[in-house]
TrEMBL record:
The keyword Membrane applies. Residues 152-172, 239-261, 353-372 are annotated as: Disordered. It comes from Penicillium malachiteum. Keywords: Golgi apparatus, Membrane. It is found in: Golgi apparatus membrane. One of its GO terms (cellular component) is Golgi membrane. This is Conserved oligomeric Golgi complex subunit 5. Residues 12-144 form the Conserved oligomeric Golgi complex subunit 5 N-terminal domain.
Amino acid sequence: MAAGEPSYIDYEAFLDPEFSPAGFANSLVLSTNNATDTPLDLSTPLSRVLFDLQEIDTHIHGLTTKSALPLLSYTQNQTAAAEHILKETGTQIASVTQGYERLEKEVLQKWQAAEEARIAAENSLATVRLARAVARCLTLGRQLESQVAELTGRGSTQAPGAGTDGTTNSAAGKEGFRALERAAVTILNLRQMFSATLEEEEGFGLMRVKATRTLRNELVIPAENMVKSRAQQSINRFSLTSTGSTNGQSSMPSSYKQARDARSRLSTAATTLYLLSPITKGVFTTSNYKPELLISTLQGYMQTSIITAANALAKGLSQLPTIERALAEISARCQDIVALESILRSIRIPHHPLLSSTPSDEPPTLDSENAEPGKVNLLQPLLQALDTTSLPSYYWRSLASSLTSRMQEILNRGGVSVRALRSNRDRLKAEIKDCVIRSSQVSATGQLAEKGRTGADTVAVGNWEREAAVMVSSVVGPLSR
């Protein structure tokens, strides 16, 4: 509709965004009818709506007829512009396509070839690393096998002194304990390779190789169990004294060589169990490493000595004529424990292949008072576990505490043995005290013998009066009640 041209149609109402067809129809019906009329006359509002539509259609037809040429011209211009844009775009697309094809040929294809080469190189490198790890693993396996053969006295070739039927070479077996520590280090190296979890670590992927799995299951694990067992046996059988004498005096080994061998066996076994003790999660340095296997074995040795001594002394007290032999036995046990303490104190913490070293692992002086516990020698972890400052002191105090119930049993039985104990109370007191002091003196001779002296002189070590008083009180005390 041209500007200023009159029209009865309300275009503003129709163009209003809030226009409602239902509301508009309702207003038409109400304007042409009364609200109370029944029925309503809908023909009039319907005719008006149709007339309005016809009027609008006529108006649209008139406008398009008048503006046909401008519309056609505008449409033609738009079509030409679109064709021009399409043509130019096609040229640019073709140029981009050619550039991509050239880029793909010069870069992408070469990159793909380079990527394939890189993957092949990485796989080859991983294969070489794995092959080297397998080769080293098998070399360590052969080394461990020879060390096990040295431990057991059995070898692939007949050693001097072996039987013609290939039986065990007893001489080689006796000397085989020297291979314990070397076998432990070999086992740790293999354990480190088997536990590798990162690609840059040596041994990564070894468990995917059947040969290494077989090696681990059939050689390494049995060898580790055997080495642990041999080391524990060496500690459990450790002794520098002979308890066979009947005069109440325990004797030292018959020769310096026996003392030296016993010391070497204990040192090697203790170091082996220290190395093979399990490493708990979160432990990376020797400063917080606890050799549980070594500690438990040494504790077992201490408990066995205490129980054996308690049984021997209880038997001697119940059969008084055998008391001297019993005192000689418990004295010998104490001498072994003093020697054990001395040897463990002389063994500094060994280097552990799977743990990093700390400044405290430097060679310490044995008489250093400022050294941190657990970081000087192999004695400190045992003292910490037993909550004591001396193994002999722990031995005598534990022995005294275990005698309380045994003395009560002897007293409850009564009879001749109890009367004999009461009548010989003073002699028992003197002999028990002398036994404690004598154990210290003979142990000192043993320590000197280990260092190369074989003299029979005695040297007092420490003040054992308190331990002697505890032992006397545990035996003689109940007799006074």
